[in-house]
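RECORD TYPE: inverse folding
INPUT: structure tokens
STRUCTURE:
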């Protein structure tokens, strides 16, 4: 039971539940796209329903979808991926569990940034893996560097590019250095690339461009605007393919069939470009407004979050978030959801609503702060 005792809940879910009581709530808390998916996705889902696509697929996922993903990497990154090395997963959460079970033994260590996505540590606890928190800040643009790893030699390194909650991006040179370091030091590199496509002011690529042994995880929830379809993917090295399939067969059997058929039509470049542009405009608006109110140590280069220092007003992010919600019906995420590195002085804003809605939220926020 000790493994599950260490689990921490998503505080943002409690905030969201409380916010749902208010009809006029402004939602900056949940990182869920409000834009519809590419138009072909809806038609593909309807077609799958009409054709009674209710059976399991093979555990690896539809061959046609895996080929589409491989083609996407070739076109987007000029990186060849054998579609046999791609497994379709029930969201990226299923992919993380698969990756950690595949590569790490009980008691092995997994390093990741603090602040960072909270599920990494919880997945580690569930599997009996030792989580190692690497404090990062604006001095390294919230990125983990090879220097961090000199002091902390984990069995595996989990990076998030772009990152939640800070929106930082691993630029090409740093990504190459980190990938090369892990390769030479036999550190397993797991790259969470869920927010690829939502990059605004940086130049990056997939970790597979520099480290063919890396494990890459991505999905359709953010950039492709399909969060409720619960569909993701994992790319593994050839030597791990067989075991990855065996684990998938036991953990989840197969990803949702209807979602897989819908995802076949997700790679609509023209539509996806409009998604990126929309979030860039929202980022520009909200960053400009929040910079007048808070210290923001890192202008987000990707994803759809702003990591704001509220210490001018409070040193208790949870209290600040609850007070703001109760008094103004504006929902934000307290920083302590994302780790232990000074996070009690930070909150996260998600710019996943229209600029008009965000304007109302900013107006209430200014009134709250006086």
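DESIGNED SEQUENCE:
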């Amino acid at each position: 039971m000790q493994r599950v005792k260490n689990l921490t809940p998503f505080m943002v879910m409690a905030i969201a539940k409380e916010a749902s009581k208010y009809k006029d709530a402004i939602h900056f808390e949940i990182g869920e796209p409000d834009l519809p998916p590419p138009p072909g996705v809806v038609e593909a889902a309807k077609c799958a329903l009409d054709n009674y696509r209710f059976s399991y697929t093979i555990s690896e996922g539809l061959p046609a979808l895996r080929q589409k993903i491989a083609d996407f990497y070739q076109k987007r990154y000029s990186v060849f991926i054998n579609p046999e090395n791609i497994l379709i997963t029930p969201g990226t959460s299923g992919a993380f569990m698969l990756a950690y079970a595949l590569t790490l033994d009980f008691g092995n260590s997994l390093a990741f940034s603090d602040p960072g996505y909270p599920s990494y540590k919880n997945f580690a606890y569930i599997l009996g893996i030792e989580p190692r928190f690497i404090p990062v800040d604006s001095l390294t643009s919230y990125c983990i560097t090879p220097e961090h790893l000199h002091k902390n030699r984990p069995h595996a390194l989990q990076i998030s590019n772009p990152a939640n909650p800070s929106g930082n991006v691993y630029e090409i040179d740093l990504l190459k250095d980190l990938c090369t370091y892990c390769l030479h030091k036999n550190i397993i590199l797991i790259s969470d690339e869920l927010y690829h496509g939502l990059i605004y002011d940086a130049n990056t690529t997939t970790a597979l461009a520099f480290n063919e042994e890396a494990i890459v995880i991505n999905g359709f929830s953010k950039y492709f605007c399909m969060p409720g379809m619960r569909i993701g993917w994992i790319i593994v090295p050839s030597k791990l393919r067989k075991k990855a399939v065996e684990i998938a067969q036991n953990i989840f059997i197969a990803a949702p069939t209807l979602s897989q058929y819908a995802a076949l039509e997700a790679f609509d470049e023209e539509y996806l470009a409009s998604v990126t542009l929309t979030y860039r405009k929202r980022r520009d608006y909200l960053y400009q407004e929040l910079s007048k109110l808070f210290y923001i140590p890192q202008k987000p280069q990707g994803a759809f979050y702003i990591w704001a220092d509220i210490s001018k007003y409070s040193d208790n992010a949870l209290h600040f978030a609850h007070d703001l919600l109760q008094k103004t019906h504006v929902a934000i995420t307290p920083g302590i959801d994302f780790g232990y590195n000074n996070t009690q002085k930070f909150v996260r804003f998600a710019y996943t609503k229209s600029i008009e809605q965000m304007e109302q939220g900013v107006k209430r926020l200014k009134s709250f702060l006086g």
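NOTES: The mean pLDDT is 97.
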